[in-house]
Amino acid sequence: MAQLSVPTVDYTEYSNRQLVAIPLALLAVSLLVIGGWFVVTGAPANLGQEFTGGSELRIQDPGANANQQIINAFDVEPATIQQIPADNAYIITFPEGAVDAGDRTQLTVLREQAEAAGFEIQASSSVDPSFTSGTTALTGVAVAFLGMSLLVFIMFRSVAPSIAVIASAFSDVMLPLAMMNLLGIKLTLGTVAALLMLIGYSVDSDILLNNSILRQSGDFYESTSRAMRTGVTMTLTSIAAMSVMTAAAYLFGIQIMTAIGTVLVVGLLADLMNTYLLNVSLLRWYVNRGVKR
Hints:
This protein is an alpha+beta fold. It has two domains: 11-47 and 132-289, Multidrug efflux transporter AcrB transmembrane fold (Up-down Bundle), CATH 1.20.1640; 54-127, Alpha-Beta Plaits. It is built from nine helices and four strands, in the order ααβαββαβααααα. The protein has helices spanning 16-41, 49-52, 66-73, 106-116, 134-156, 159-183, 189-214, 220-251, 255-289, and strands at residues 54-60, 80-84, 89-95, 121-127. The protein has a four-stranded antiparallel β-sheet. A hairpin with a 4-residue loop joins strand 2 (80-84) and strand 3.
């Protein structure tokens, strides 16, 4: 059976500035993308229907040239048209306020237009934006991040190692969030859950590295190599599993799973870079120079 071999990195060939250059540059670009998105749209990412409100119809596949049939059937163009090949169906979404419904609900008007076009409606639903908020979801991510930061500080009782873990975890979330904007992936409850999972992944690999260097025997480079053998293997295994899931979800037209898998793959790749470049450089500075506890 083939075994995963983690190559040994000779960190002595690189200065701390060289190690942090790439992670910090990518983090800066990510923050620029997210900041620009916020200035233009008022949100750090494109918000999904759960956060903006709207209506959703699930119809049976209408046949040839389905997308054009769907567009022609309604008075307004749908926000998204998603094909579900496995169920021979299409999911159509509309933002809140897209249709002038008068005294009726938007969903009622949309159902009537779909039935008039001869579509077979399998299901329909609406989301009230007064009960959802993208800000609330991101606040949840921020609270989880702050809780993680407090836990890390309590564990290590020192500023520098804690900052190393927090900086790595922060970058692990910012990079996939920026990539979501560039790839057109919306912020939904599913992708928020993926971002929360990335915080857990990041803390796990970073604490493994910190414990190996600060609390176990051996010099800095020996301890780093020992942590990499375990941490890189775990992360690469997770990346492989998430890649397979993402590919399968894409082939079967499961949009939410494709989005979650993409966010996780990007975030896990970022975690490899941040843990073994950014975090290692900060810990090496801490071990070599010392920090008053």
